[in-house]
Design goal:
GO terms for molecular function: 1-acylglycerophosphocholine O-acyltransferase activity; lysophospholipid acyltransferase activity. It is globular and about 75 Å long. Helix 18 packs antiparallel against helix 19 (about 370-395). It has helices at about 1-10, 15-25, 30-50, 60-75, 80-95, 100-120, 130-155, 160-165, 175-180, 195-200, 210-240, 240-245, 250, 255-285, 315, 320-330, 330-340, 350-365, 370-395, 395-405, 405-435, 435-445, 450-455, 455-470, and strands at about 295, 300-305. The chain is mainly alpha-helical and about 475 residues long. A hairpin with a 2-residue loop joins strand 1 (about 295) and strand 2.
């Protein structure tokens, strides 16, 4: 009940948070959020030591601690996170786990979230009840799809392997649903996970006693990594900040410097999200909800606890193309988008169209500011060019020879690493500043370089590349027919 305790201290003027926040260069809401995220870890320890042995109190523990956390951060506005849960509970009772229930859940939750954005959003980075609500929106939409998939499964309709794993043949009870909504380890910033995982966790299907030493060690590792990334973020934003990119002084620097600065700013800005995800993943592991099967090693079978992993650090830090960022960053949201949006748009008969609508959904999910839509449009045009460019160039002999040469491969890696850093900055800038007046100023200072590089690909660069390969008689790699 740390939230109520700190709230009581605030009412009598003894809460240290308002005094500590400016000392460490942050805001009071941001520090309250960080304290709440960090509290997930000891709550996991308490759960395993004292609560888990009483099965009937497990959901109650999650509800009480989660609501306490919500009250501390958002006060009475926490009711907004409860209303959609109540709605899906009653629509499931009324319509059953059907297609109609799924449509109602999707439309209601997205509408509720967008109205919330309109009521609370400003040009700054806001920490309001819409933050956990955007996570909740995906969780409840996924739940409705999983219930619908369970109905299909009971009627003998074939499902994909992934859908079979998450399909639900029984709807949740009310207390299970509220426990799922307010699960304290990831209520505020994610990651999202399926209701099936939650029920497996409650039903003792994960080897928490047998593998306690393994998951406790992995939880500590993630906690340390989260703290390290948080410190790096705090240092990074003192050197690279968006206010400088909006200043007149930024225009006085060289175009190369501006691109490098913007890229490095974005890289450190992403550490804000990475640190939060690492800290919440540490809490999820410590609770024991992250179990992900067993892995064979030279030392025998070892349990895996990466089921709530939202960031793949090595892939992210070593990224040399934007697909690496997609594979490594915000993994659970990307999984949701792939399974519940992209694949469900198969009826469109066009992958690029399905991807465009998926990115439009994600932009809408983030908010109504123009910067979100520009960033996801950037992702679309970059990925479109990258995939086509790679499919053409990777089939040539010269491509294979260059990567097989150790010296040249180092230069290629350095070039591609610089490319991803620079254009990640270009892509992310609108997302961070949100409004057109700000991102247009930054793009003007960069001479709209990303649009020049990526937009003309299909009608200009691609034909030129194909003609050049033919003109210089660059051969394709011979396919192995054995």
């Amino acid at each position: 009940m740390f939230g109520i305790a700190l709230s009581l201290l605030s009412w009598v003027g003894l809460n240290p948070i308002p005094y500590i926040a400016p000392l460490i260069g942050t805001t009071e809401p941001a520090l309250k959020l960080l304290v709440s995220i960090l509290m997930g870890y000891p709550l996991g320890i308490v759960y395993n030591k004292y609560v888990r042995k009483y099965a009937e109190f497990r959901n109650l523990y999650f509800i009480v601690t989660g609501i306490d956390m919500a009250f501390y951060n958002f006060g009475s506005a926490l009711i907004h996170n409860t209303i959609p849960a109540i709605v899906i509970y009653f629509t499931t009772l009324l319509f059953g786990p059907s297609k109609m229930n799924t449509i109602i859940t999707l439309v209601f939750n997205m509408t509720y979230l967008l109205v919330g954005y309109m009521m609370t959003e400003s040009e700054d980075y806001d920490i309001t009840w819409t933050m956990p609500h955007c996570v909740l929106t995906l969780k409840l939409i996924a739940l409705s799809f999983d219930l619908w998939d369970g109905q299909k499964l009971s009627r003998g309709i074939e499902l994909s392997a992934t859908s079979k794993k998450t399909a639900l043949t029984q709807p949740p009870s009310f207390i299970e649903l509220i426990g799922f909504v307010y699960f304290p380890a990831c209520f505020l910033v994610g990651p999202i996970f399926s209701f099936k995982r939650y029920m497996d966790f409650l039903s003792d299907k994960f080897p928490l006693d047998k593998e306690s030493g393994v998951y406790e060690q992995q939880a500590i590792q993630r906690l340390i990594q989260g703290v390290a990334y948080l410190i790096t973020f705090q240092v990074g934003v003192t050197v690279f900040n968006v206010k400088y990119m909006l200043s007149d002084e930024f225009w006085d620097t060289s175009i190369v410097y501006r691109h490098l600065y913007c890229g490095l700013w974005a890289h450190f800005a992403l550490y804000k999200y990475i640190s939060c995800w690492l800290l919440t993943e540490a809490s999820c592991i410590r609770f024991g909800i992250s179990h992900n099967g067993m892995e064979k090693t030279v030392n025998g079978d070892i349990s895996k606890w990466d089921g709530c992993n939202n960031i793949k650090l090595l892939r992210f830090e070593g990224a040399t193309k934007f697909q690496h960022y997609i594979d490594s960053f915000n993994c659970n949201t990307n999984h949701f988008a792939a399974e519940y949006i992209y694949k469900r748009l198969k009826f469109l008969g066009n992958r690029n169209l399905s991807q465009l609508f998926t990115l439009l959904f994600l932009a809408l999910w983030h908010g109504i500011r123009s910067g979100y839509y520009v960033t996801f449009f950037n992702e679309f045009i970059i990925m479109f060019m990258e995939k086509e460019f790679e499919s053409i160039i990777s089939k040539t002999e010269i491509y294979k020879q260059m990567w097989s040469n150790s010296i040249i491969s180092y230069f290629l890696y350095a070039f591609l690493k610089m490319y991803t850093i620079i254009f990640m900055g270009w892509s992310l800038a609108p997302f961070d500043v949100k409004v057109i007046s700000k991102w247009w100023r930054i793009y003007s200072s960069l001479y709209f370089s990303g649009f020049i590089v990526f937009l003309p690909w299909a009608f200009l660069y691609k034909p030129l590349l194909i003609k050049s390969l033919k003109y210089f008689n660059i051969k394709k790699v011979e396919q192995n027919t054995q």
